[in-house]
Amino acid sequence: MNKFHGTGVALITPFKADGSVDFDGLENLINYLIDGKVDYLVSLGTTGEASTLNKEEKKKIWKFTAEINNGRLPLVAGIGGNDTAALVQEVKDFDTNGYDAILSASPYYNKPTQEGIYQHYKAISEASTLPVILYNVPGRTASNMSAETTCRLAADFENIIGIKEASGNFDQFNQIMRDKPKEFLLISGDDPVAMPMISIGAVGVISVIGNALPAQLSAMIRLCLEGDYTKALPLHLSLIEFTRLMFAEGNPAGTKAALNYLEVCGEEIRLPLVKVSESLRTAIINETKKISS
Questions:
Q1: What is the band of 1 on the pLDDT scale with cuts at 50, 70, 90?
Q2: Residue 244 falls within a domain, yes or no?
Q3: Could you give the number of structural domains in the chain?
Q4: Which of 7, 9, 63, 159 is deepest in the core (most CB within 10 A)?
C-alpha cells in the first residue's frame, strides 16, 4: 500500500455563490494539487463538508473527481456515518471506478463502546470491495478509538489497511506502532504533528493545509520520509502559523480563504459553517503571501 505513503490531501468542496457545487473550481483544485506534487487525494472527508451534501451531490462529486484525476494519483473516498446499516448500504452502492480505498470516520454522536466501534468497522470491511482506512478523530466524534481496537481491526481484516489518526495522543500513536501488523499504515490526521509522527513510523499525512500549499507541504513530508529532518525542520516551522490560521475559525473556512486568494477557487461555504472574519482573512492572505512567494 505504498500508494498511501506521503502527502494525501482531504479536498475541500468549492461552492458557487448560490450554494451549488462549483465543479470548475473543483477541477482547478485537483489540477493545482497534482501540480503541487501531492501523493494522493481524498474526496469528501470532513474538510469536503460532506455532512452538508446530499446523496446525489456526493455521487456527482465522486464521479467528477475520478474523471478529472483520470488515474493520475491514487484516490480515496470518504464514506462515513453513525448508522452502520445505512453506511454498509452506501459502501455497497458506491461506484468504485477510479478509487483505490475508502476512508471512514469512527461513528460520531452515538458514542459507541470499543466493541461497538469494532463491530461497525467489521461490517464496513465485509461490505467493501476496496481497502478501508480507519479514521479516529475524537475531537469531532466525541469518542476515541483505542489503540487496542485499532490493532484488533488491523489484525482481523486484511482489507483494513491503515488509520488516519487525529487523536493527538502520542501514547496512543506509540502503542499502535508497537502492536500493529507490519504492513498496517499509521497516517497523521493532523498537519501540525505530521513531522513527529513520521519520526516514530507514520507513513505520511492526510492534510487540510495541503489544499492551499501542496508544494510546500509535500516537500516537507518527502524530506521526513527520507529521514532528512534537518532539512525538513525549517519547512515544518514555516507552516506553523499558517496552520494555526487555517483552523482559527474552523475548517475549511480558513483553507477556502487562502484558496480564494490564490485564485484556485472561491471561498463560499455551507451553513452552519461561515466564512472567516475580515481580520482573519487579512492575516491568512498575509501569511499565504509570505509562504507562497
A1: low
A2: no
A3: 1
A4: 9
In a domain, 288, yes or no: no
Q: Is 135 a catalytic residue?
A: yes
Task: Write out pLDDT tens, residues 75-103.
Answer: 999 999 999 999 999 999 999 999 999 99
Report if residue 182 sits inside a domain. yes
Q: Residue 122 has what pLDDT?
A: 98
Tell me: is residue 206 an annotated ligand-binding position: yes
* Residue 177, all three cell numbers: 506502532
The pLDDT confidence band at residue 177, using thresholds 50, 70 and 90, is: very high
Q: What global pTM score does this model have? A: 0.97
Identified catalytic residue from 164, 182, 256, 275: 164
Q: State yes or no: 47 annotated in a binding site.
A: yes
Q: What is the CATH number of the domain that holds 81?
A: 3.20.20.70
Q: What is the mean pLDDT of residues 172-193?
A: 98
What's the pLDDT at 293? Answer: 72
Supply the range of the domain harboring residue 188.
Answer: 2-225
Work out the pLDDT band at 9, boundaries 50, 70, 90: very high
**289 classed as catalytic:** no
Residue 106 lies in a domain: yes
Mean pLDDT (the chain) is 97
